[in-house]
Amino acid sequence: MAETLEGTTAVVTGASSGIGEATARALAGRGARVALLARRRDRLDALAGELGDRAAVFEVDVTDDAAVAETMAAVVRELGGIDVLVNDAGYGSMVPALEADLAEWRTMVDVNVNGVLLTTHAALPHLVEAAQGPRGVADVVTISSVAGRKVASPGAGVYAATKHAVNAFSEALRQELAARHVRVGLVEPGLVRSEMTEHSGAAADAEEHFALGLMEPGDIADAVVYMVTRPRRTAVNEMLVRPTEQTR
Ligand SMILES: NC(=O)c1ccc[n+]([C@@H]2O[C@H](COP(=O)([O-])OP(=O)(O)OC[C@H]3O[C@@H](n4cnc5c(N)ncnc54)[C@H](OP(=O)(O)O)[C@@H]3O)[C@@H](O)[C@H]2O)c1
């Protein structure tokens, strides 16, 4: 029997588009109050307008230590705690090393690794506290990638390195927090239609090769909702989710 999210607060980074936006919508649909985090305030305001009193907007760059710490404190002040953290904000630039721009590599490491570390570090004490409350459990879900599980492919070396890094961090954190009843899980999507894959051309390429198409952001939001609505005795540690026809 799935647990309700009524009375809980969920923080979703990257809530201004794609998987993060769909996840925020899905968690609010299950009864959570959702803190929407990203840099594009207009996009967050539009989503908050749709979700009404279930949502609050926090404009933040997840690579900025001080801003992330201030934001988590503001979430707790305004929404009363943190029961669920979804680390979704991410960036991908798939270029072979010989042609790569170092600034792009740095952005991937900053957003995909440091962003996850900073938001998780700032939220952790509140998650531990929430796990001692009426729900009796708290959740950290990080949106990694198939690229965090499989051996990297050409052009995806740095992106894959960032996702392997967060997978390693997440597994250690899972072991550290199990006794405190904070569940730590990974969702590892294959190709999903989003700004990231529309801009890179990966979505168009997948449309051409997959008769059934690529996944939609809501397919990954479903995986996150499944994880965080398990009975408190059950932790889903990892979900690898691909389009039916994606082989690698
Ligand atoms: N699409 C796929 O096929 C796929 C597959 C596997 C894994 N993923 C992962 O899924 C996650 C979401 O990606 P998506 O596909 O939904 O792409 P997307 O639509 O481009 O969304 C990326 C999100 O990250 C936020 N973000 C980026 N840099 C940020 C920063 N410095 N501070 C705060 N927020 C930042 C963006 O918001 P702002 O620009 O408003 O800040 C946006 O909301 C990423 O971690 C990605 O690696 C995607």
From TrEMBL:
Keywords: Oxidoreductase. It holds the Pfam family adh_short. Coiled coil: none annotated. Its EC number is 1.-.-.-. It is an enzyme of class 1 (oxidoreductase). InterPro entries: KR_dom (IPR057326), NAD(P)-bd_dom_sf (IPR036291), Sc_DH/Rdtase_CS (IPR020904), SDR_fam (IPR002347). Residues 8-195 form the Ketoreductase domain. PROSITE patterns: ADH_SHORT (PS00061). One of its GO terms (molecular function) is oxidoreductase activity. Belongs to the short-chain dehydrogenases/reductases (SDR) family. This is SDR family oxidoreductase. The lineage of its organism: Bacteria, Bacillati, Actinomycetota, Actinomycetes, Pseudonocardiales.
